[in-house]
Amino acid sequence: MNLLQQTLEKIAGLDQEITAMARERVDNLIKPAKSLGKLEHLAVQLAGITRNLKPDFNQKAVIVMAGDHGVYVEGVTNNPQEVTAAQTLNFAKGLTGVCVIGQVSGAKVVPVDIGINVEMPADAGIILRKVKNGTDNMAIGPAMTREEAIKAIEVGIDIANEQIEKGVNLLGTGEMGIGNTTPSTAILSVLLHCDPLGITGRGAGLGKGGIEHKAEVIRRAIHLNQPNPDDVIDILAKVGGLEIGGMAGVMLGAAANRIPVVIDGFISTIAAIIAVGLEPKAKDYMIASHASQEPGAKRASEFLGIEPMLLMDMCLGEGSGAALAFPIIDAACSMLKNMPTFAEAGMEI
Q1: Given CA atoms 319, 321, 324, 328 in this order, what sign does their dihedral have?
Q2: Is residue 318 flagged as an active site residue?
Q3: Which pLDDT tens digit goes with each residue over 60-100?
Q4: Which of 74, 318, 344, 348 is catalytic?
């Protein structure tokens, strides 16, 4: 809890002076006013985050948190749980979707075992920071203790700090965990005070009972555990996931170090909601990459209050959307760095 509290206390908002200067510069670049749309807003945000009118992100990383879920035994998905461990090994080999997308912008992928239910090899290129071997079944009790939830967040903070110390200056968040749309939807259902059925989707594959069964499992878990909607750590502990907590920690660690963090799709957005629930100013450092196809994704983005940049009909997870958004961030930086103002170009308007 000390690391979490220290991190929250370090988070400050955007540098308002630099933000104003960046806005003035963008408004005077050699182009019609506001003609580059959202790219202009992104550039101003990046300047305010970094306190630099010409930010540059030459070391990018997507941190992929991997964990299993006890609720898997309720038949919420038809995918083997063993896929979590197998795919985490593939991250280290550079074979997955996020890996090949990340190659385009030179982003490295950093896989972290925060809660896989088997022991991973020590020499496989995976960071081993297991809080426990998967969450407990939230349909019969809390997914984890409050202490474990805090530990998961602190693991994320630690990993973010470690990567930043190595020179990483742009982070993305990703996850791997068979069944993890179930706790994500449960968290959102609690926060929206709504029945889960309308926001429950297929995830990576439905179990035999379909959407209705998955929603009923979520409904039962919420009724049994009674998570406090005003306490995001309580929600995370009772109906959440270790990788969700880990991603929230990465986001808080990024904000504390004034590093932008790109959030992926549905599950990453739920983690962002947890992070912002702990410190609202953390939202200033977040960039939403894409609008996931999961039914709850739009509601989650609206609740968070950040509009995704891309509409690509994606729902892979892994941080794939974050990796895809990195070149857009580079483009915003190039605009600030390489495009002159009318005055610099010797043009009168």
Answers
A1: negative
A2: yes
A3: 999 999 999 999 999 999 999 999 999 999 999 999 999 99
A4: 318
